[in-house]
């Protein structure tokens, strides 16, 4: 193989590899505190003037040790997310976290994070958790596990996953760390049946192989967001 061709091949492989492992951009300075009020739109947030930065830009009194109300949620869970919108110092650092409270028999329903891998740690109680692989010739495989206090489970980026408290008389609590300052969340039922404007019932009836009346009923429900 000619040297020029070999160099081109290596360069292309390096680009592909870098794209495959890319997440939030790596910081090029000590910090880039988000200027939430800047009118300039970029992929992320414009940096605040470093001379105007102080310790409060890296701090939030989130009271994550306090239980959240799960009784008002139809799905019986409450997600308290700490991302760049709540903590500007996270800008460009590629991390965020969430406290998740589950009522007895409550769940964090099937959803995805389009921009982040998630690692979940159970602080109290028991959770049944799992994720489903993308489409393959052998279908979509479910990886699921029952977790107890202190156990850890990972949900790969972009894959549909869920958590469910199977105990009928005890709540559960977990902390999730995510590999993006703004991981995003797409709750499957909400996105499919609660979009505005709604997806055509012809499309959904054929996709789910059900009658249009079933789709119409589902679209008429109130699809609640349990992320705060």
TrEMBL record:
<dbReference type="InterPro" id="IPR014710">
    <property type="entry name" value="RmlC-like_jellyroll"/>
</dbReference>
<feature type="disulfide bond">
    <location>
        <begin position="32"/>
        <end position="47"/>
    </location>
</feature>
<keyword id="KW-0479">Metal-binding</keyword>
<dbReference type="InterPro" id="IPR006045">
    <property type="entry name" value="Cupin_1"/>
</dbReference>
<keyword id="KW-0464">Manganese</keyword>
<protein>
    <recommendedName>
        <fullName>Germin-like protein</fullName>
    </recommendedName>
</protein>
<feature type="binding site">
    <location>
        <position position="111"/>
    </location>
    <ligand>
        <name>Mn(2+)</name>
    </ligand>
</feature>
<feature type="binding site">
    <location>
        <position position="113"/>
    </location>
    <ligand>
        <name>oxalate</name>
    </ligand>
</feature>
<keyword id="KW-1015">Disulfide bond</keyword>
<feature type="signal peptide">
    <location>
        <begin position="1"/>
        <end position="18"/>
    </location>
</feature>
<feature type="binding site">
    <location>
        <position position="118"/>
    </location>
    <ligand>
        <name>oxalate</name>
    </ligand>
</feature>
<keyword id="KW-0964">Secreted</keyword>
<feature type="binding site">
    <location>
        <position position="108"/>
    </location>
    <ligand>
        <name>oxalate</name>
    </ligand>
</feature>
<keyword id="KW-0732">Signal</keyword>
<feature type="domain" description="Cupin type-1">
    <location>
        <begin position="62"/>
        <end position="216"/>
    </location>
</feature>
<feature type="binding site">
    <location>
        <position position="113"/>
    </location>
    <ligand>
        <name>Mn(2+)</name>
    </ligand>
</feature>
<dbReference type="GO" id="GO:0048046">
    <property type="term" value="C:apoplast"/>
</dbReference>
<keyword id="KW-0052">Apoplast</keyword>
<feature type="binding site">
    <location>
        <position position="118"/>
    </location>
    <ligand>
        <name>Mn(2+)</name>
    </ligand>
</feature>
<dbReference type="InterPro" id="IPR011051">
    <property type="entry name" value="RmlC_Cupin_sf"/>
</dbReference>
<dbReference type="GO" id="GO:0030145">
    <property type="term" value="F:manganese ion binding"/>
</dbReference>
<dbReference type="InterPro" id="IPR001929">
    <property type="entry name" value="Germin"/>
</dbReference>
<dbReference type="InterPro" id="IPR019780">
    <property type="entry name" value="Germin_Mn-BS"/>
</dbReference>
<feature type="binding site">
    <location>
        <position position="161"/>
    </location>
    <ligand>
        <name>Mn(2+)</name>
    </ligand>
</feature>
<comment type="similarity">
    <text>Belongs to the germin family.</text>
</comment>
<dbReference type="Pfam" id="PF00190">
    <property type="entry name" value="Cupin_1"/>
</dbReference>
